[in-house]
Amino acid sequence: MAAPRPSIILVTGVSGSGKTTVGELLADRLGWDYAEADDFHPKANIEKMRAGIPLTDDDRMPWLRAIARWIDERLASGKPAVVSTSALKRRYRDMLRRPEVRSVFLNGDRELIERRISARKGHFFPAKLLETQFRELEPPEPDENTVEVSVRDTPDEAVQQIIDALNGPAGKD
Questions:
Q1: Domain span at residue 34?
Q2: What is the pLDDT of residue 129?
């Protein structure tokens, strides 16, 4: 028997990988709600990143707990949603993992992502912090059952690949 379709999709990757763009488009295509993980950061985290100071694991814990609470609330209410979050390390993803949650990883090369970050207007995350994100990134392992999509794909192509993967053999147990 096929497992039920996930009711929460995490769109993960380093800053500038297209999480918001892909996440919003995916949620729109599915008719689900969307949440931007940056909105869960305490003000102190935003100010620290704006100042070019990388976050520590201690800084990230309240943020991850807030996202996990939001996921649990969504699951309890039966309202499916997409949420974008860097979830750079496995232990972060493990905090957010639930049977009804499926992860997507937007994977790409640093040069392309750095160009994207440099072109963004009005975002608090400076390009110089990208180095720390790549240094801390622990790409998903096969046992995490993550859909991997290249950042070189257009957002429409990425979303279609995600939907196909969720509806195909990888989306069934």
A1: 8-166
A2: 66
Q: Is residue 138 part of a domain?
A: yes
CATH number of the domain where residue 60 is located: 3.40.50.300
**Would you say residue 1 lies in a domain?**
no
Give the amino acid at 87.
A
Residue at 171 is within a domain: no
Token pair in block for residue 33 = 């709600």
Residue 115 has pLDDT above 80, yes or no: no
CA nearest neighbour of 96 among 81, 106, 109, 107: 81
Distance from C-alpha of 160 to C-alpha of 95, rounded to nearest angstrom: 27
Give the 3-state secondary structure of residue 161: helix
Question: Structurally, how many domains does the chain consist of?
Answer: 1
- Distance of alpha carbon 68 from alpha carbon 153, whole angstroms: 29
- The tokens describing 20, both together, are 């918001």
Residue 57's pLDDT band (cuts 50, 70, 90): confident
User: With b meaning 16 or more CB within 10 Å and e meaning fewer, what string describes 35-47?
Assistant: bebbebbeeebee
What gap in Å lies between CA 120 and CA 140, rounded to an integer? Answer: 26
78 half-sphere exposure, CB direction, 13 A CA radius: 0
Q: Is residue 123 part of a domain?
A: yes
